[in-house]
Amino acid sequence: MHTPHKRTARRSTRSVRIAVITVGLALTAIPVSAYAGAPSHQAVPQRTAVAQQAAAATGLDDPAKKEIAMQLVSSAENSSLNWKAQYKYIEDIDDGRGYTAGIIGFCSGTGDMLDLVELYTQRKPGNVLAKYLPALRKVNGTDSHSGLDPNFKKDWATAASDSAFKQAQNDERDRVYFNPAVKQGKADGIGTLGQFAYYDAIVMHGDGGDSTGFSSIRKRALAKAKPPAQGGNEVTYLNAFLDARVWAMQQEEAHSDTSRVDTAQRVFLKKGNLNLDPPLDWKVYGDSYHIG
Fold first, then answer.
1. Is 95 annotated as catalytic?
2. What's the domain count of the chain?
3. Which of 133, 142, 58 lies closest to 96, judged by CA?
4. What residues make up the domain containing 56?
């Protein structure tokens, strides 16, 4: 694992993340894999065959693919593939969002850390973090540590040894980020790689309705290309989405390094690996990673 100070620099690429995606499109996907590269006069496959293919493809929510997704995000967020070592992680990375912690970077200033501790306390009243709930409510929306210091970091690490807290982190990650991203990806008719591109975007940008939030990134992409669910080409659409994602990252200085797109997601797309099948080789911030 990288040294803590290096990881701090890497994690400074965080952005505000508040949100739940509203999914509006119906799942009427026509996988481009069925006809990509075919002559323009060739008929699109019958919908029944397409529907059978769609039913057979579980996407990023397949357990093996979900594990890959967790490792890919961790390579960018933690400079490590060992995402399960991050339950105890906590620090203020000076990005204006207070403490950043846990497997997905829950922040004291953006609401998702508060939601997490509330869930943990509902499931296990009297836990070591429960006493911080009033303070977390007060600092929400700010970078303040008021009421949290000096023992919050120590108590977070203590809680991270509790399986109930680990499960709460998993569940909030899925509720707020993973499940909405996969649901929208399937509605747009995109495969596993595309669903991951959605997930990574909402992890970094959230979906708070601003110009760089997930929904806004997706709208910029839709203005350039149609997703398979609307009869478009999957590769063309994903390139448009990644272009829009890079634009969003460039709007904030902390996101000026776009390697998690340029030398990771874009690499898989150029290779035509729409199913995100291993082996996978990519780079983030210049560091190389491999999943066999």
1. yes
2. 1
3. 142
4. 4-21+45-291
Task: Using a pLDDT cut of 70, give the percent of the chain over it.
Answer: 80
> Residue 54 falls within a domain, yes or no?
yes
Comparing CA positions, the residue from 202, 168, 189, 170 lying closest to residue 236 is: 189
CA distances, 38 to each of 45, 142, 276 (Å): 11, 53, 22
Determine the distance from the C-alpha atom of residue 148 to the mean position of all C-alpha atoms in its chain, rounded to a whole number.
Answer: 27
Q: Is the distance from CB of 117 to CB of 132 less than 8 angstroms?
A: yes
Residue 33 lies in a domain: no
Residue 79 is which amino acid?
A: S
- Among residues 67, 91, 92, 95, the one annotated as catalytic is 95
- Is residue 31 one of the residues assigned to a domain? no
Q: Catalytic site residue 200?
A: no
User: For 56-108, how does the pLDDT look when each residue is reduced to its tens digit (9 = 90+)?
Assistant: 347 999 999 999 999 999 999 889 999 999 999 999 998 889 999 999 999 99
Cα gap 37→21, rounded to integer Å: 32
- CA–CA dist 47, 34 (Å, integer): 11
Q: Which residue is catalytic, options 61, 62, 67, 77?
A: 77
Residue 39 counted as domain residue: no
Q: What is the pTM of this model?
A: 0.81
CATH code assigned at 8: 1.20.141.10
pLDDT in tens, 18-66: 333 333 333 333 333 333 333 333 333 344 444 444 443 479 999 999 9
